[in-house]
Amino acid sequence: MNLPREYDEAPARVPAEPLEELLALLRRRAWADTDELRCAEPGHPDGHVCVAPPEGEAACDALRRALVERYGRARNLAWDGDVDPYVTDLTGLPLLTPFGDRVVRMRGWSHGGRWIGLGAVRGPLGVRPVLVVAEGRSAAAELPEGSSWLGGILATTGRDLAAPRRAVDWAAEEARLGTALPVDYKQLAEVFGEGAFDGWLRLYVPGSGGNGSDLVGNALGLAEHVRAHGGALWEPYAVHPAPGGLLQWGDTEQADTFYWLTEGRDPDRWPIVAVEDDFDSWVRFDGTITEFLYRLLTDPHHPFSTARYFDRHWFEPYG
């Protein structure tokens, strides 16, 4: 966690548990049907409990690694005193609320209907580590009736539709690409920008920075690669700009890749095809990108589901 050498002492607490016992304690407290969360810290509101963190920077880092192994990549809610301006109750705000503007760092994991947070806060004598279990809210309960697929993604990730949008010159980017793009994708890219759903599925957006997620730049580069080396890896499909070819819009940390199959003249009717890193078993999904992503986030039976691993979902912006 790179904690400063000195930090103020926490209020009186029981000694920290050994790592495995501490992980078991956090898991028990994270299940929403266990008990109410009432913190013993003076002045702290209900809805969370502060747990004694391990002593020392190395022990806190070992706990962080263990939480990543068990619950996946964390959501970064605050870093170096900068708090995510779009964080909501659905995306980890209850972990920050007890500490107000004293938060220095906070990472959050969702499990069992609650949040687990590991971070650091300022105090009278410096910065001290904190470990928190806080209430969450059901994403499903937030879905507005009759919502569009994009609306469902917004509700599921706690994203604010009124947040600043990414500006994209779609006419110029589509001219470079040689094709129009689906309308719902353009809305998705403007609302979310470059980043990853659940810190796992990276969305390609035209004009993104140097992290390899520029949709148009990647498409042009892949087309050049196929011209130079052939496209056997993508068979039985061709690669855009070949008629009906694959146009990649995302990937994952495990090298799964996601494409539109550019069949026909109407981009809004393009199906999705996806393949794992072995490029052996292709999966076709006859629906839009926003439907695909919504089902990925909410349906544990989706072939690339994150709902099997996370109780809550988020979008981690880059930059």
In brief:
The protein contains 8 helices and 13 strands. The protein is α+β, with helices and mostly antiparallel strands and 319 residues long. Strand 4 (103-111) and strand 5 form a beta hairpin.
What does this structure look like?
A hairpin with a 2-residue loop joins strand 5 (114-123) and strand 6. 37% of the residues are buried. The strands form two sheets. A seven-stranded antiparallel beta sheet has the order 12-11-10-9-8-7-13. A six-stranded antiparallel beta sheet has the order 1-6-5-4-2-3. It has helices spanning 19-30, 57-71, 93-96, 149-157, 170-177, 183-192, 215-229, 289-298, and strands at 48-51, 75-79, 82-83, 103-111, 114-123, 126-135, 195-197, 201-203, 246-252, 257-261, 272-275, 282-285, 315-317. Helices cover 26% and strands 22% of the residues. The protein contains eight helices and 13 strands.
